[in-house]
Automatic annotation (TrEMBL):
Homology family: Belongs to the class-IV pyridoxal-phosphate-dependent aminotransferase family.
Keyword Transferase attached: yes
Catalysis performed (reactions): L-leucine + 2-oxoglutarate = 4-methyl-2-oxopentanoate + L-glutamate; L-valine + 2-oxoglutarate = 3-methyl-2-oxobutanoate + L-glutamate; L-isoleucine + 2-oxoglutarate = (S)-3-methyl-2-oxopentanoate + L-glutamate
One BP annotation, GO: L-leucine biosynthetic process
Pfam families: Aminotran_4
InterPro entries assigned: Aminotrans_IV, Aminotrans_IV_CS, Aminotransferase-like, B_amino_transII, BCAT-like_C, BCAT-like_N, BCAT_family
EC id: 2.6.1.42
GO MF annotations, alphabetized: branched-chain-amino-acid transaminase activity
Cofactor(s) required for function per UniProt: pyridoxal 5'-phosphate
Keyword Transferase: yes
Taxonomic placement: Eukaryota, Fungi, Dikarya, Basidiomycota, Agaricomycotina
Name listed for the protein in its UniProt record: Branched-chain-amino-acid aminotransferase
The entry's keywords: Amino-acid biosynthesis, Aminotransferase, Branched-chain amino acid biosynthesis, Pyridoxal phosphate, Transferase
Modified residue annotations for N6-(pyridoxal phosphate)lysine: 215
Amino acid sequence: MWKSVGNGTLEGVSSVSDIDPSKLTITTSDTLKPIPPSETLQFGVTKTDHMLVISFDPENGWSAPEIKPYGPISLDPASSCFQYATNAFEGMKAYLGPDGEPRLFRPNMNMARMERSVERAALPSFNSQALLSLIKRLVLLERRWIPTEPGYSLYVRPTMIGTRSSLGVSASDQALLYVICLPTGPFFLGASKEISLLGVSDTVRAWPGGTGCFKLAVNYGPGFQPLREATKRGYSQVLWLLGDKITEAGAMNFFAVVERDDGDLDLITPPLDGTILPGVTRQSIIDLANAHTEGKTPLPNIPPSQKLYVHEQDLTMTYLKRWHDQGKLIETFCVGTAVIVGSVTKIGHDGKDIVLDASKVKHSLTDAFLERLSAIQVGTFPFENWSVPCNP
């Protein structure tokens, strides 16, 4: 395994080159694609004109970065990424700020998580700040693709795949790192962000000691069949359960809002116990809730006197049903880079539904978090340097 030593080299069996943004070459497309109307955009479908590509081999290290026209890549059929799912990726979003300049939302958290995911997949290490510098260059080049309508953005997908062309069951010592950009609208189509979940425990997304806390491709494919079954039954996503314990909802983090006897609210989300992806939006929700309770930055339309107590603790279907029966379960919602914040209005489990009427919530935390996060992301509400300009 190779480790970045911060001076442009990787330390391993021998010293080889790390990612070097000063060696970037840019080849622009001769013919730029037309920008489709924003209302036609579906998540993950439309690609921009260019992509960033860097390759790794054990003798030379990381190649000179290249931004070039978007197009297919050529790989050996025996490549590790095909045979053993040695694939790690990230999900980020770019927005246009009030000054018209592109910006990224808390990108250092994405880079730190990608470093951890790459290490878990035994792929070559890399200088994440160098990669972030290159991502900013790509976003600047593709700025015309960033939608300006509320709820729209430019989705940025950095990906590293193992390219060792051997069926030997071992770590890949060759890799391809690439970044693509996709303009996107709401993750869930339609005017409503309301989500329905089907609790599933006969199959699992992640398990103790597994890879649920890393953003690896291997975590996602096995979830498609349970999702297909859930949609057949009229639900929009799967609520993953380990026995009675809630972990995630689809590929999103899950929150429950419970009213206390004094009128304040408990905001509860499963702990980062190794089965939960440490989401950037998840952490942002926690930070914003704490800022509200501390009186630093009250949330929109939430009384400043109403405290929000964050609990990262085990959350079970038994608890949800009990709170719902007691009239204490006020809201449940999912968060993630793609959805941002989405209200959960129905949860199916053991043949029965927990139904929540969002219209009856006097002060909706779901709406408050969505409004505040959206304003921070586009830079109209400055907060803790979360919105990072792409300009040097």
